[in-house]
Amino acid sequence: MKNYRTTYSFFTLLVVMMLTVTSCTDLEPELYSDLTTKNAYGTESDIDAALTGVYSKLNPYPNDAWLYYAGYLVMTTDYSTDMGFSTAAGDPTKLSNFTYDDNNRYFRLNWQTMYQVISNANILLSEIEDVEMDETKKNQIMAQARFLRALSYRDLTDGWGPVPLITDAKNPTETLDFPLSSVEEVDAQIISDCKFAIDNLPETWSMETGLARATKGAALTLLGKVYMRAHDYTNAKTYIDQVLQLRDKGVYQLNPDFKNEWSDSNKMDMGLIFGILHEAAQNGGEIANHFGPTDHPVVQNRWQYYAVSLQFWRKYADSDPRKEFYYYNYEGASPRDATTTHGFYYMMPAAGQNIPPNDTTKLLPNVATKKYSYEMVSNSYMDGRTIQIFRLADVILCKAEIENALNGPGAALPYINEVRVRAGAPALGSSADFPTPGSKDQMIDALVNERGYELVFEYQRRADLIRLGKFVEVCNTYLEKRGLSPVVTENMRYFPYPLEEARIHDEMSAANVNRLP
């Protein structure tokens, strides 16, 4: 893996043609290599290939198909909350137990991959002006690169707060001990990048151009979320409302059945605003391996490496169909031993139950979501799942949060209920068991729950808890329910900088002292 100095420059660019910039039917990867700042940008096709290089690092393929949005990001966005629970030894368990240190591989590898996206974008943006091509297309390519750079900087500042802000192609010798920029300074760059993207990206792309490119709606969503993070709900409303206006135009639409958003045969659901598409045989990912159930008779040979905590799962109301969108209470595919053809029965334990009822039953220590393995078309090792980064249900819940902040719970209620009713859950206010939130604080509590129920393992939970002021409370309650010490403090809202970065960066090293559990 590259160290801090070479991660930023990344002058030798490996470009993999993947579905993000090809059509939905032409999925064959095309490999470009040895693209450098000296010789790689003479033609329009070179620029097209370089743009693919920016997209590709969101979901590296074929050798690192678990990095960043392909799986590893969930470990820092959802595991370090009440949501994730791992039985795997080492770094995953340290995150879900809040016993991590600065040498955690998920810190190191997410940081590096985010900066590789940024570096690839910076190189493209530094070279494109000298290439002769249609001006509209040039602006669209620049807009996509700037959106992807903004997305990575959003993710970096979510995780670490102040980070080095680099917006041009740097020589490796110039980035040693590069100063940290405040979140406000980085946000200014994100806002600038997103506004350029909004002005230059289309609402949709044609099949021939590539369906999974960033769009105007994706840039609007990212910008609205960045304003929300800063609690600037007035500006957030401006941009989130524009996404909902695109819904009114027919660009986006909630699937009537929330489960169908995740079907392997429904790769481009109309609720998808921005994501990563795969085809198992040609540019498959590994997300189903990490999130799929262990020893399941239908979804076979998966690891359940990342799973939802029982404490979180039990928060769902029994009347909420999303509680059933998990794998539990099933007979395993593998025989228990050489004398039987039957597998173990994997049972969801009752709260407090730690002894199975018989020797043919295993109690589940956690529970696997169906999101990344529902109705699989191919059971191959490399899967064809769509990874959803932004989707309409999230935006509707953003609208509920914005309205609550600006106008109170009554204004937020229709939007939170739209998501609940679509899922088949009882509307808030429909009964004594589901009362209407009567204050802003009560609506915040409802939104914390609803965003968790709807957006499990979609890179949201930690940022949601921090933004809504519930990070310490929710995470410590979770630890106490597991019999662990409530160690979470406000200082832990940012992760320690990766050890190998902090070793060569004085500001990072000094900050890490207060960021560790």
| Radius of gyration, CA atoms, in whole angstroms | 23 Å
Strand content: 5-15%
Find the count of extended strands (DSSP E, 2+ residues). Answer: 13
**Unreliably modeled segments:** 1-36
Alpha plus pi helix count:
19
Distance between the termini: 26 Å
Mean pLDDT: 90
What structural class should be given to the helix and strand makeup?
alpha+beta
Largest sheet: 4 strands, antiparallel
Tell me the overall shape.
globular
Q: What is the subunit organization of this protein?
A: single chain
Share in helix: 40-55%
**In what order do the strands lie side by side in the largest sheet?**
3-7-12-8
Keywords: Cell outer membrane, Membrane, Signal, TPR repeat
InterPro entries: SusD-like_N, SusD_RagB_dom, TPR-like_helical_dom_sf, TPR_rpt
Subcellular location: Cell outer membrane
TPR repeats: 217-250
Describe the protein in words.
The chain has 517 residues and is of the alpha+beta class. Helix content is 42%, strand content 8%. The strands form 5 sheets. Strands 3-7-12-8 form a 4-stranded antiparallel beta sheet. The longest helix is centred in the N-terminal third of the chain and has 26 residues, at 135-160. Residues 1-36 have low confidence and may be disordered. Residues 75-228 form the SusD-like N-terminal domain. Keywords: Cell outer membrane, Membrane, Signal, TPR repeat. This is RagB/SusD family nutrient uptake outer membrane protein. Residues 300-473 form the RagB/SusD domain.
